[in-house]
Amino acid sequence: MFNFKFNPIQQVLFVSGVLFNSFVIAADNAETETTETASEKAQPTEEIQVVGSRRAYYTQITENAEKLTSMPGSMGDPIAAISALPGVIIPASGGEPAVRGSSPADNRYYIDGMPAGYIFHEFNTSIFDAQTIQDFQLYSAGFGAEYQGATGAVFDVRLRDPKKQDIAVTLDASLLRAGVFIEGQATENSAFYLSARKGLIQYFMPEQDEADEDGIRVIDPPQDSDYLAKYVWDINPQHQLTLMAVGASDYVEAELTDNFEMVALNPDFAGDAKIDNGFASQAVTWLYTPKSGHEMQWIIARYKDDMTTEWGEDYYETIDFVEQYIKGKYSFNLTNAHTVTLGGEYKNTEFAYDLNTVHFVCTEFEVNCQASRRDPIHVTHKLTTKDSTVFISDLWQINQDVSLETGLQATRNSYLDETFVHPRMALTWHLSPNLTLLSSAGRYNRFADIGTAMPEIGNPNIKQPVSNHYTFGFKGEFLENWSWQVDSYYKTFDRLPTALPQDQDPDDQYYVAQTSGDAKGVEFLLNRDRADNWYGWMSLSYSRSERTNNLTGQTSDYRLDTPVVFNMVGNYQFHSGWQLGFRFIAKSGEAYTQVVDIQPNPYFEDKYIGVYGEPYAKRLPTYARLDFRASKPFSMFGKEAEFYVDVINALNRQNVVERDLDYVRVNKTGELAIEEEQDMGIFPSVGLKVTF
Description:
Elements: H1 8-12, H2 14-30, H3 63-69, E1 88-89, E2 98-99, E3 108-111, E4 114-116, E5 133-139, E6 154-159, E7 168-174, E8 177-187, E9 190-199, E10 216-236, E11 239-256, H4 261-265, E12 271-288, E13 295-311, E14 315-333, E15 338-360, E16 373-397, E17 402-413, E18 418-432, E19 435-445, H5 450-453, E20 466-478, E21 482-499, E22 511-531, E23 534-549, E24 554-557, E25 564-573, E26 579-587, E27 591-592, E28 595-600, E29 608-612, E30 618-619, E31 623-636, E32 639-648, E33 656-661, H6 663-669, E34 674-678, E35 683-691
Parallel strand pairs: 3-6
Antiparallel strand pairs: 1-2, 3-4, 5-6, 7-8, 7-35, 8-9, 9-10, 10-11, 11-12, 12-13, 13-14, 14-15, 15-16, 16-17, 17-18, 18-19, 19-20, 20-21, 21-22, 22-23, 23-24, 23-25, 25-26, 26-31, 27-30, 28-29, 31-32, 32-35, 33-34
């Protein structure tokens, strides 16, 4: 049974909760294993479908995806433009996005229905050429039974199908990246495209004979590359076969000296450091549409990821894993009012890791990982885990104005030996021609953070994180080409990892699932569709996200909690062909933990570490940035071409992205000293694209 404690947001979301509760009770009776369930704290949350509809045979980019591609600050990268969508936070230090109070680790990524290991390079650009994207959807909460392995958000990228045309070659180069894109017809019933890109920043960085003032001497500058190939064969009107290959790599090498902050904190980290990551994925998809209202799809895929990090006194971490995957689903019209989808997936993952490293027992919730440093370890291990999932969903068109989608998902992980049964629900109610009510709810789980679950460095018996999502909102239209949407959400998180202090860990468990939390917020989106040569949108969101250490009872803001975020995007096309756009963002400063004093470093003589105050109780100054983009199509030697200019941080605002102890100065003086790290200043870039 559920124990409701209604807070104001739960009262607003009561409609969602009542519908979902009756469904959850039935699911609980079917669940094969009792778990510490976040559903005992049932509270409201939501899912937002940010970008257009999915269409199976589509070779053109959707209008909404095109808007993201041309958004200023994105450098033509539609996935990188997600930071302008409501509820999405990019960490100040870089990395994958956090969505609606969830951790980046809570997300899952799909490419054409196939799970993807990562879709962002180490330096924050995505792995996709903009010409390959057909549609992009962000399910920020309350997503349906088809999706598993995520407790935060789902990023669903749909690649467009190749065009049946004469083979064309597009060359694209800017100060940051160069690429080639080839597309055309292979046979009467088949077509393909191939994208290959390489970062160029390494060619603009000067060689260094000695370390800079930050203690870094770059040996090999940051460099990345990616490729994507897709072949589609329309065998006949009922059968379609697709072959796809995706890959990416990231590499950087540098020397870290005594003036580098991490070396000042850990002197044994001094020396050459290297990051060398890469993945390769291949997939075969068969689509069968025997008759109207029926569709079957099967995907068979293989994914390989290699991650190597080296630093300091012969420290290294090498983690390789191979994933073999099969997924199928079948949709059919049971009656005129019911569309049923049945599906499932099976995944076999083999992990191999070789670690010679300092053992930090630490999670993203700890404010001072240095205090959790343990002795260096050398571990070599292999493990295999199998995940299996089945689901059923029913879309019931109750009448012309009301539809209800209900779903049930059962999933099992062999390594952690856990089974879950999760209910999902979504309600759409057209209250009037210009007003629609939207609500959704669901229960979710994901695999534990791999570093916390590995034998010898983690706890192989740790429990998987679970979450409840509830959402409630309205959307409507007014005037011509204008629309709005208001969404509220509530998420609960349970069984998140907690690092055990060494003096409280006699059995060397290292981690237990004893952190919980919640996230709640309201978002407003105002959108103007493309008309009269311009379009734009504005969003404003308010949210709070907290985490509680259940062992100590201490509650604090989540490290990526960002209460207020404002975005405004506009684009205008002049009659001359020039297209000019801007994007402005202003948001609350990121939460951080204040250093209140210093103390001797217990591992290194004459070195110091910080004494920290209340976790994440302070905030950095407000972050604001203005980006511009201008583009102009023209003809070059009779070929289609485009010239574009990007200006990131056009106001050259020095945003503070980190505030911490200045370890270099402290080690020299023995006195407390704080330093601030600032985001990059103004960054202009120009580029040229030509199609032959």
